[in-house]
Amino acid sequence: MNSPLVSVILPFLNGGAAFTPALRSILRQTYTNWELLLCDDGSRDGSLELARSLQDPRVVVWSDGKTKGLAARLNECLAKASGSLIARMDADDISYPARLERQVTYLQAHPDIDLVGCRMLICGEDNSALGTRPLPTNHAAIVAHPATGFELAHPTWMARAAWYRRHQYDPTALRFEDVELLYRAYPTSHFANLPEILYGYREMPGGFRKRLKTRLGRVRYLRAHPSENFPRAALVEAAKVAADALICATGTRYAMLRRRENPLSSAELAEWKNLLLELTERPATPSLAKVAQA
Q: What is the pTM of this model?
């Protein structure tokens, strides 16, 4: 068998009901020369059994029964990946059918670009569409404000394997492994985003503690690596902590997202609903059906 061009790296920990459509969204890609690397991080909800039930030779599953964190597992996937392009994917999100095809085509046509992301549709826990999050398409705009982050959505990344292996994840950068990697990589890298919606990103209604860890982690990193970015970044993160606390306390996260994100057109909303129908129809195997109905 020829080596795949694209390695999709997908660590998972208790993927839940959203794991089935996430996996299906890769299996139904219009681009087919890929491998899917599924690294279990200690799941206890049947996700590992679901992953192992996939009868596709392009799917590779492994587990050591431990929980090591996303960054460590992503590095494991990078070590195993055989593709010259590496795509990220989260276990509770959805890749649109043409996502891999469009990103592969772009990177092949733009050899100067190291990493390409894409525009996202934001959905809630129940799959309801909340809006769309457009991102700048050119490198200069993506890295224009490093003190407040980078305009690249982590789960949408597709990067050249050589670039990814030069810039691996720091396992100690808990909950901000992507930002920490980009701080190291962006001075010598070139990034881009595709303007079309190719990814459905799931926002959960609560999660204040996780967001707090992310904010504090970024501040600690910037303080440990002094630069002109630190004072402004610390102030921004402090303001975000206060906003997160208020939003979570009042249960208004989804209302805030609907106001903040750009509205979807009728065609974009129809496309999302049709995609959900395709990905959540009755699974073809008993094991898929069992997990999907759990």
A: 0.88
The residue extents of the domains of the chain are: 6-205+251-286
Burial of 79 (0-12, 13-18, 19+ CB in 10 A): exposed
**Under 8 Å between Cβ of 11 and 60:** no
pLDDT at 265: 97
Distance CA 34, CA 126 (A): 29
115-123 and 94-95 strand pairing: unpaired
Strand segments (E) across 15-144: 34-40, 59-62, 85-88, 94-95, 115-123, 129-133
Tens digits of per-residue pLDDT, 25-61?
999 999 999 999 999 999 999 999 999 999 999 999 9
Phi then psi for residue 82, to 5 deg, are -110, -10
205 conformational bin, left if phi > 0, alpha if psi -120 to 50, beta if neither: alpha
For 6-205+251-286, CATH number out of 3.90.550.10, 3.30.470.20, 3.30.1330.10, 3.40.50.2300 equals: 3.90.550.10
236 pLDDT band, cuts 50/70/90, is confident
In percent, the amount of the chain with pLDDT more than 70 equals 87
Per the listing, tokens 């208790």 go with 14
Q: How far apart are CA 239 and CA 243, in angstroms?
A: 6
Q: What is the pLDDT of residues 61-116, one digit of tens each?
A: 999 999 999 999 999 999 999 999 999 999 999 999 999 999 999 999 999 999 99
Note whether 10 and 59 are within 8 A (CB). no
Distance CA 1, CA 214 (A): 42
Helix (H, G, I), strand (E, B) or coil at 183: helix
Structure tokens at 63: 């587990």
pLDDT confidence of residue 62: 98
Tell which residue, 164, 144, 162, has the closest CA to residue 152.
144
